[in-house]
Amino acid sequence: NEDSKLVQKIVQNVCDKIYSESEPADKTSEFVGISFHKKCMKSLLSVETKDVQMVGVWGMGCRGKTTIAKYVFDDISSQFPARCFVENVKTDSQKHGASHLWKQIMSDIFPKTDHV
Hints:
By secondary structure, this protein is mainly α. The chain has helices at 2-22, 34-44, 65-76, 89-96, 98-109.
C-alpha cells in the first residue's frame, strides 16, 4: 500500500514537471519566426497615443497574416477599453453584407447594447 502511494507520488511529480516544462510561456513561441513579425507589427502601432489606428496586412493566402495579427491583438488589446478583431472581412461581407460586419464590430465594442 505504501509502495503504491510512493509510485503514485513519483508519477504525479514527473507528470507535473513534463507538462509545466512542455507548455510554452508565450503561445507564440510555437510558431517559428512569429516573434519577429509581431515586433514589426507592434512597432507600427503607437499604443501610447489616443488616436484611432489601423494597420493593414496583405499578402498571399495561407501565409500567417491573420495569425500574426491575432497574436498582436491578443498582446495589446487589454490596453484599450473598446476593442474588436475582425477577420475574413471580404468573405463575410460578400456572404452576409457590410451590415453584418458592422453589427459584429458594434457588439464586440459595446457588448451590452442592443444593435439593430
